[in-house]
Amino acid sequence: MNKELDHIGVAVRDLDGSIDFYTNILGGTLIDRYRSEATGVESEIAIIDINGTRTELLLPTNNTTSPIARFIKQKGKGVHHIAYHVDDLDQALKELQAEGIRVMKDTLRTNKHGRRLIYLNPADTEGTIIEYCDYPSL
């Protein structure tokens, strides 16, 4: 199945400061900023586009349950995940299963932009958090 980079998720402690850096220093454009309290997200998110490449800045909104908060406590701020766009998420999941790659089933969801996504189990990806996503409504 064809895969291409969709975005990079970056865990941050200061969303406004990070937006300032990505827009004023790197020359990006703020595409959207929103808050998601969905289980497994619990973050304020800013989407930055830099010449067609997107970065999601992720600020935890709940320091007790947010996976972004746990990530920052364990590893500090920085790259949280790499997302790959696949043609068909359902088919990609079947291919992963055939290869013995587990996914974190509780992360399967559709975000406000119509992107269906799921995270692969980092135990099977050499420790990197990888997201697979598709855009079935487009």
TrEMBL record:
Keyword Amino-acid biosynthesis assigned: no
Superkingdom per UniProt: Bacteria
Pfam families: Glyoxalase_4
SUPFAM superfamilies, per the entry: Glyoxalase/Bleomycin resistance protein/Dihydroxybiphenyl dioxygenase (SSF54593)
InterPro entries, alphabetized: Glyas_Bleomycin-R_OHBP_Dase, MeMalonyl-CoA_epimerase, MMCE/EMCE_epimerase, VOC_core
MF annotations from Gene Ontology: metal ion binding; methylmalonyl-CoA epimerase activity
Residue span(s) of domain VOC: 4-135
Keywords per UniProt: Metal-binding
Keyword Transmembrane helix: no
GO BP annotations listed: L-methylmalonyl-CoA metabolic process
PANTHER family linked to this entry: METHYLMALONYL-COA EPIMERASE, METHYLMALONYL-COA EPIMERASE, MITOCHONDRIAL
Recorded family membership: Belongs to the methylmalonyl-CoA epimerase family.
Protein name: Glyoxalase
Organism: Gracilibacillus halophilus YIM-C55.5
Lineage per the UniProt record: Bacteria, Bacillati, Bacillota, Bacilli, Bacillales
